Amino acid sequence: MLDFTALFAPLAIFPLGLGALLFGLLLKGVDRIVAARLQRRVGPPLLQPFFDIIKLMRKQTMVPEGAPRGLFLALPAAGAGSMLLAAALIPIAGVYHPAAMLGDLLVLLYLLTIPAVVLMLAGSASGSVYGAIGFSREMALVLAYEGPLLLVLASVAMKTGMAQGGWVTFSLPEIVRYQQQHGAFLLDPWMWPAVATYLLFFPANLGIPPFDIPEAEAEVLEGPLLEYSGPALALFSMMSALKAVVVIGLGITLFFPIGPAGFAGVAVFMLKCLVLFILGKTLLRTAVGRMRIDQAFLFYLKWPELLGVISLVTVIVRA
After folding, report:
1. What are the TM regions of this chain, as residue ranges (predicted)?
2. How many Å apart are CA 288 and CA 99, to the nearest integer?
């Protein structure tokens, strides 16, 4: 019999549930402050993302005329819910390991695609021309960066499985335990192509410049999110915050999960996320402009795809 208590209890503890959401919103606050300092601005307070959520929750959600109301309102909840569940799959070495019934790396891969699908459907359902443009851009970008992600996950899964006498393992707790016993993949030069591929993947997945093409404010006015307001828009903001924790936490789990047990382990995990977030998002978005969609598409078909293939071939050859 399925134990629903064991299934949903992790959603109430850090880094899951409310903990992941609060941490994700704090990351967004730090991002705004650091970006402002780099641009010699004062910037907003650290808690501005929380204030934005509260403000949106007090407003009314307007549904565009002609839009399918049920679908239009259900999409934000589906996106935020998928990332809430994905947070339950991210382990912290020495602190938390997800129950086997919650799924593994393959389930997490499917969950990570849901926000992109939600944004595409939101743009389509809004009835806006800008939403439709954002839909097409999001679809092209997903097709470009999903390939490198698959190659990275396959490389790590095969590296761990073959080293243990098998073929492949998709269990995140097993991947963490192997690195605790034999060293982090980040310190293995043969895994550096996979690390580089992941570092190139997550800016596009999180919509960080120069890959914020589907929601470019100066071009398509937030694209798929243009017609959203009130609590529905707040849910999209929560989805974005949760997704940042999941994507960055996944990268740490795959390549550098080693840390102490207990509260110190949580603090180390949060510090790793903060450093990677600032280096991979804040510095990047303040230093570069936006690519065109054709430039981004070709970029991912060339370099991240090539690095991903190199990492997979290297793992197979050295097995």
Report:
1. 6-27, 71-96, 108-133, 140-158, 190-211, 232-256, 262-284, 296-317
2. 41
- Between CA 79 and CA 10 the distance in angstroms is 19
257 cis-preceded (ω within 30 degrees of 0): no
Task: Tell me what pLDDT residue 166 has.
Answer: 82
Task: Give the amino acid at 200.
Answer: L
- Tell me which H or E stretch contains 170: none
Q: Who's near 12: CB < 8 A, 6+ residues apart?
A: 18
Q: What DSSP element (H or E) covers 66?
A: none
| Residue partners of 267: CB distance under 8 A and separation at least 6 | none
**8 A C-beta contact, residue 78 and residue 125:** no
Give the tens place of pLDDT for each residue, 219-237.
666 778 888 889 999 999 9
pTM of the model: 0.91
Angle at 222 between CA 219 and CA 225, to 5 degrees: 150
Orientation angle between helical segments 230-255 and 192-205, nearest 10 degrees: 180
